[in-house]
Design brief:
It is built from 10 helices and 5 strands; from the N terminus they run H-H-H-E-E-H-H-E-H-H-E-E-H-H-H. With 193 residues, the chain is α+β, with helices and mostly antiparallel strands. The longest helix has 16 residues. The protein is globular and about 70 Å long.
Length: 193
Amino acid sequence: MMREPDEDARAVEAALFASEEPLSRAEIADVVGEGVDVADALDRLQADYAGRGVGPVERGGKWHFQTAPDLAHLLRRERESPRKLSRAAVETLAIIAYHEPVSRAEIEAIRGVQISKGTLDVLMEAGWVRPAGRREAPGRPLTYATTAVFLAHFGLESRRDLPGLDDLKAAGLLDPVDAILETLEVESEDQDV
């Protein structure tokens, strides 16, 4: 049985519900006014919404209402079919996420090929990447970083939630370097015989 929410929790709920964009705790406090314990109200709202179809979640330090993950399949038909990212865009996004802030030259050095301006444009249009200032180096190159929209889209609370090398290997997404080297050594020995 859901308990009756107090006025603070109701005010925070209304602020989150009415906002077009996710809100930080400070932004929520600006909306609901002084004297409201925003952190406590958010905790109570999370408890009240536990197990329901929607609930307040924090992504990248900002709060918004989100559909329960187990019900997302019901809403898929309502969504526009997203444009599939090119391999270059996926690689660029991964480099930015793991190395941010990172410059275009650093992205190209890691990928080993040049990237087109359109690749970064697609990621910025999606709202996943943003300019993150200029590096204090010759030429003052522009750097790029991920956004709160990126975190929300991929269900991450922060960049620390990105999978590590061991996680990627366990999922079969990366071949262990040792296995590749062993394969190359065996092939080399077979050619010498």
